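At this stage, I wrote out one protein, both as residues and as discrete backbone shape codes, and that material follows here.
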Amino acid sequence: MNRERNPERIGRDGFLRLQFERRGPRTVLGKSRFTLPLQVLTPLTLDNGTAYLMLLNPTGGVLGGDHLVTEIIQEPETHVCLTTPSATRIYRTLDRPAILETTIRLGEGSTLEYFPDHIIPHTRSALQQSLRLEMAAGSRAIVLDSMTSGRVAHGERWSFREIDSRTEVRVGGKTAFLNRTKISPASNNPRQLGRTEEFDYMTCLGLFAEESTDWPRVVAALQSELDRMPQVFGGVSLLSRNGCVARFLARSASDMICLNKTLGEAARELVLRMPSFDYRKY
């Protein structure tokens, strides 16, 4: 990655590019290139041939001024499951925000499961985050996005400077989902009535498929899982085409993590027609 080096600049540039290909019944990592602070572990191959890979930041968190770019290409008929070993910490900054940019391109008939752990913004941190997903004919994707109000155990709630997050999903060259979230606690208190109130944890789970799917049935099934946890607040929405989105607020990390897992497993069965599996983050 060619970037002009500025000795006075705060923060680091990180780059990760992965390309997956199909070899017989298996999906393999054909090409890999990265510069710290981005890195990946050696992928595992699941019983059904899926490539399971952990995305890493070995520095322990993201600093103000960091610019981390991830590009992932899935060739036709590949199946990839991406996750992280733990939550992503966004450390405080006195100047520039941290920038995380991710682009994922799915070839025809490919499948993506994107389940990163949640974001934890520290006091006075600032983050600009974007995810762009481009899906070809017959491709499918399940995408998870979660965050907390801060280091809740340390009494840090909504004390970060700003989080600006954008997710765009394009199916067959047309926009199927566009979500923009901008939270600036100093100017707009998230804990006010009608906003997050007493909730400190947020999740958005998107399910997308170019092929025909009984989306009303998927929405009803996911809503049923949400209804089983009355301590959370959320719902499932049907998109105009090619998918649905589940959103919820939780009061505790354990409730959020539990429901993320439950909804992810349900989505895997409903959309991918595959059983759940252990992510083995230990």
Observations:
- The CA atoms of residues 153 and 244 lie 33 Å apart.
- The helical segments are 215-227, 253-272.
